[in-house]
Amino acid sequence: MDMPYEFFIALRYLKAKRKQSFISLITILSVAGVAVGVMALVVVIAVMSGAESDFRQRILGFQSHITVLQHGGHFSDYDFVSDLISSVPGVIETSPYISSQVLLRTAYGVSGASIRGINPDVSVKIIEGYDSAKLREKLKTPPASEDGKPVLPPIILGQDLAMNIGVSEGDVLYLISPKGMISPMGQVPSMRKYRVAGTFKSGMYEYDAFFAYMDIQDVQQALRMPDMVSGLDVWVKDMYQVAPIKKAILDKIGTAYWAQDWMQINASLFSALKLEKAAMFVILILIVLVAAFNIASTLIMLVMEKTKDIAILKTMGASDQSIRKIFVYQGTFIGMIGTGIGVSMGLALCYILMNWKIIELPSVYAFSSLPVLLEFQDVIIIAISALAICFLSTLYPAHQAAKIDPVEAIRYG
How do residues 390-407 score in pLDDT, each as one tens digit? Predict the structure, then answer.
């Protein structure tokens, strides 16, 4: 297939030595500007995607994909409801849980906490850093110690919560529940002793400072709610398809229940992350836009330099459209070279950040190093956006080149 002559001429103009070296310098700066802008976009968007993915994993370390609750509060027929939910296509596991607000007291302080009773035999990860095997081991209560004395039930605390009340693994604390017993003086809160079996750190303060985990049976005893649960945790095969599965679950179990999925619960957080990602894209694409102005400047000066060449081409029969194509091709070449270099540099830098933790973050952040997640569609969108901006920057110079009158250009050239 023969190369169009417009393409050939554009390539020659790009490679030819300039009469004015200043034009060549602007061309190099244009390529560099596009490359830097695209590289920055690739890296920053990858970091934003990594942060979103990391937050998602941390949240799903504490929350199930779908939570099923009954209107009116706690319920007891959870085994029957769990069997119905398990029969819904797409559901891989269900587990009852019970949650309540309690006070934790030690010799060093008192703190409110959100206690959550779970089934440690569930075969999915529930707490970040604890798989089911570790949970079974940590939350298992031995019947007696070596000296024959009863062993206190275990509790796992968030790291910040443990620091606030001054306890560590092996220490004893008191759990005070508002659901106590009735006495002649009214309802008296119940108070029980528990053993700190361990701590966890998710990197999210709202979990580490307020969450505590226990075996569901121990929580039921502490709250004096035998055979009652707060709801059912449900895990599905595809966590991004929770909406139709949630609808199928509610259709199956009836109107006495309601459900919410992880996307609904954390909608504000993920909406904020997506907004920040979009804002960073708009801000950084301005770098490419500045480079596009350089491309337009380069082409305008090139048109002025090649006025006589354009006139000769027109006298030989070249149409205005052909003249436009020559300069559009040349500007597009510059954009493609800059975009290609920028994407390559961005991918290389992302690879380095993913494999070598060269940027350590302070402990105030949820991450110890920059989270990086390369998504193919993001790289494609960045490349297409950069090429589109570079293409648009060629239209005005190309239009001006096509307007040149060959007679006037040859006469005064």
Answer: 999 999 999 998 888 887
